[in-house]
Amino acid sequence: MTRFEIERLELVQLLRERNITDNGVLAAIGAVERHKFVGPLFVARAYEDTALPIGYDQTISQPYTVAFMTQALGLKRGSRVLEVGTGSGYQAAVLAEMGCRVYTVERHLPLLTHARKMFDQLRVNVLAKAGDGTLGWPEYAPYDGIIVTAGAPTIPDPLRDQLADGGRMVIPVGDKQTQTIMMLSRAGDKFTLRQESGFKFVPLIGKNAW
Ligand code: SAM
């Protein structure tokens, strides 16, 4: 076993201890090579349960946050998922590893270009585009899951509209310092909301956000 494989197993164990129980999520985090999605300066810290810088004042999210949000989506193989905030591409790779059809949008072109390079290199099957993710990606809607990986002042209407019947959205909402993760479930025209507080994200910047 390589050092990275051992560190991934240890990370999965830590996530189990923090109440991540979805075996699909745990298996994907155990499989995706997070060290390929961080810059060379941070490779040695890739499997710490912490966010790390990826340039442009942005971060790759903490593994616990990735696991918590992904678990909250309640996904199956073949679920169609929209991610807003591709960043390093790690979260999208986790979703693809779970067998989801992944659509991801990033506003910083250099980050998107780098993430795409990793998707090609690691043969990760996702569709990625540059743009303002607060508008969603209407061409491929509706989505069974929508995951927003930057903190928003409110839930953008276009994202709510692009959620499938029976679908779920996870989105951090709050001020620019701390956010609550909102988990929105749709049944027809009815939306129900659960919340979990105490997370910190970089800001979501766009027409329907900051
Ligand atoms: N999911 C990423 C990963 O796995 O590395 C982490 C993303 S980072 C915490 C949040 C990302 O959201 C940043 O890359 C930022 O540029 C992006 N972002 C912020 N506002 C956005 C918007 N309106 N549309 C698309 N991306 C946005």
Structure overview:
The protein has six helices and nine strands. Helix 1 (3-17) runs antiparallel to helix 2. It is 29% helix and 29% strand. It has a seven-stranded mixed β-sheet. The protein has a single domain (3-199), classed as Vaccinia Virus protein VP39 (Rossmann fold, 3-Layer(aba) Sandwich), CATH 3.40.50. The mean pLDDT is 97. It is an alpha/beta fold and 210 residues long. The structure holds S-adenosylmethionine. S-adenosylmethionine binds next to strand 2, helix 4 and strand 4.
Give keywords:
210 residues; alpha/beta; seven-stranded mixed β-sheet; two-stranded antiparallel ribbon; 29% helix; 29% strand; binds S-adenosylmethionine
Amino-to-carboxy terminus distance = 45 Å
Secondary structure: helix percent: 25-40%
N to C succession of SSEs: HHEEHEHEHEEHEEE
Radius of gyration: 16 Å
Q: Please tell me what the overall shape is.
A: globular
Helix and strand content put the structural class at: alpha/beta
- List the total number of helices: 6
- Poorly predicted sequence stretches spanning 5 or more consecutive residues: none
Sheet with most strands: strand arrangement: 5-4-3-6-7-8-9
**What is the CATH superfamily?**
Vaccinia Virus protein VP39
CATH topology title: Rossmann fold
Count the E strands.
9
User: How much β-strand is present in the residues?
Assistant: 25-35%
What's the architecture, going by CATH? 3-Layer(aba) Sandwich
CATH class category label: Alpha Beta
Mean pLDDT: 97
Major sheet: 7 strands, mixed
Bound molecules: S-adenosylmethionine
Count of domain modules: 1
